[in-house]
Amino acid sequence: MVYSISLFPPIFIALYYQDGTLYDFVKVLVGVLLTGLIIWYPVRNHSRELKIRDGFLVVVMFWTILGLAGALPFFLAKEVPLSLTDAIFESFSGLTTTGATVITGLDELPHAILWYRQQLQWMGGMGIIVLAVAILPMLGIGGMQLYRAETPGPIKDSKIAPRISETAKALWYIYLGLTVACATSYWYAGMNWFDAITHSFSTVAIGGFSTHDASIGYFDNINIEMVAILFMFLSGINFALHFTAFRHLSGYAYFYDPEFKAYAGLLLGASIVAILYLYLQDVYPSWEEAIRYGLFQTVSLATTTGYANVDFSQWPGFLPVMLILMSFIGGSAGSTAGGMKVIRFILLFKQGLREITGLLHPNAIMPVKLSGKSIPEKIMTAVWGFFSVYVFTFAILLLIIMALGVDQVTAFSAIAAMMNNLGPGLGEVAANFQSMSDPVKWVLTFAMLLGRLEIFTLLVLFTAAFWRT
Predict the structure, then answer these.
(1) Does 266 reside within a domain?
(2) Is residue 207 one of the residues assigned to a domain?
(3) Host domain of residue 38
(4) What value, to the nearest 5°, has the Cα angle with vertex 147 and ends 145 and 148?
(5) Which residues pair with 418 in a beta bridge?
(6) Are 259 and 238 in contact (CB under 8 A)?
(7) Cα separation of 469 and 455, whole Å?
(8) Distance between CA atoms of 107 and 117, rounded to whole angstroms?
(9) Is the pLDDT of residue 206 over 80?
């Protein structure tokens, strides 16, 4: 029922531009509202505490049900001739902020549909922030309980705390503030108001949807690209850090955080490699072009946004593969970015060093430390567990879509793009996913949901132990 309210902005856009989609959005609004009312009304007076098991179910249902409901405008709008499978793929891609698309000819689409696509990503991004900073640490998913102490608001272990609403409210203000700042900056840099607002939605959500087929490259404007780089970088930072910095009106929180330092260092290092390679391999004749395209595409892909100001898949050598591999690390935990998260890679790296040192000193007790504090073994075990399940799941999904007829390069990059919520891939999916068969699209839809929900949240529902009373 609450979700149906989000259909009012596209309705107003349809009225303003008279683009022919008004009645489609009205029908969806009424249908979704009535469906929610029918489900809610009989149990409106029932109340009890939500336990952790309920938390897993609510989180999965949030993305699954809203992803299916979100497909209705794409399916019903005659101006967007999408099959049911394509409509569901596009909706899930938006809501999970993946940014992969099956639509071509974006420049000719109705404004209301374009707005709706971008708005889906923005709503999904807000849900991701609350999920990552407030809910997953409490559910203990894959080592994310490490951030429980830094969550802006009290979180209890035994149940989903009522005061989680305070956490969500604080995060909402930060998210909204970043969106307004991003939209204003885009407008000032040269976008019209419609493009500025819609691109701010997908930038802050690290989604990557655009209102143009050529993405950010459509504008061919360095100022716009610099704004995108800045806000992609900011949105890839743990929002709990943004909260701390805002509360104390100080930036010290960033520079004392090991994950932020690693995140910034990785982006800087990868950007330098990309720029040097593009120039030294004569891909671009000048340093200015190498810096412009190398920096933008590195930040875009490493933060799992997926914007493009050039077709990076045409770059020679190892660079496209390196950028796809960067998306496996992704952004910080507690951000709208996808990937496995920087904090997990820091802990995996430190654990690897500990194992090597342990060969020389087998009887030594060497706890993994972060900012001088020992990390509990339970968390280290959870991080290793997450990594192993991630790799195993990746391999299984890769083999499935290869069995369905997808070539190796396309299959690898497509699963990477889905599980890391990146969007663009290589091979046949460099531009869009329209050429993929329906069975492949269903596998990819599952993969993007799996990646967005940190794997365990979804897989736990498939265990017998979850359903035992």
Answers:
(1) no
(2) yes
(3) 2-234
(4) 70
(5) none
(6) yes
(7) 23
(8) 13
(9) yes
Whole-angstrom distance, CA of residue 289 vs CA of residue 285: 7
One-letter amino acid for residue 127 of the chain: G
CA terminus-to-terminus distance, the chain? 30
Q: Is the pLDDT of residue 410 over 80?
A: yes
CB atoms within 10 A of CB 460: 17
- Rounded to whole angstroms, how far apart are CA atoms 182 and 205? 11
Mean model confidence pLDDT for the chain:
88
pLDDT above 50 (res 104): yes
Which residue reads 């902020």 in tokens? 97
Angle between helices 193-204 and 222-235 (to 10 degrees): 30
Residues forming beta bridges with residue 159, ordered by sequence position: 51
CA distances in angstroms from 447 to 26, 237, 451, listed in the order given: 31, 24, 6
Banded pLDDT at 396 (limits 50, 70, 90): very high
The pair of structure tokens assigned to 8 is 């009012």
HEC states along the chain? CHHHHCCHHHHHHHHHHCCCCHHHHHHHHHHHHHHHHHHHHHHCCCCCCCEHHHHHHHHHHHHHHHHHHHCHHHHHCCCCCCCHHHHHHHHHHHHCCCCCCCCCCHHHCCHHHHHHHHHHHHHHHHHHHHHHHHHHHHHCCCCHHHHHHHCCCCCCCCECCCCHHHHHHHHHHHHHHHHHHHHHHHHHHCCCHHHHHHHHHHHHCCCCCCCCCCHHHHCCCHHHHHHHHHHHHHHCCCHHHHHHHHHHCCCHHHHCCHHHHHHHHHHHHHHHHHHHHHHHCCCCCCHHHHHHHHHHHHHHHHCCCCCCCCCHHHCCCCHHHHHHHHHHHCCCCCCCCCCCCHHHHHHHHHHHHHHHHHHHCCCCCCCCEECCEECCHHHHHHHHHHHHHHHHHHHHHHHHHHHCCCCHHHHHHHHHHHHCCCCCCCHHHCCCCCCCCHHHHHHHHHHHHHHHCCCHHHHHHHCHHHHCC
Structural domain contains residue 430: no
d(CA 320, CA 188): 32
> How many separate domains does the chain show?
1
Q: Which of 237, 149, 207, 144 is nearest to 456 (CA)?
A: 144
- 51 is written with which tokens? 């336990």
Q: Does a structural domain hold residue 214?
A: yes
311: pLDDT strictly greater than 70: yes
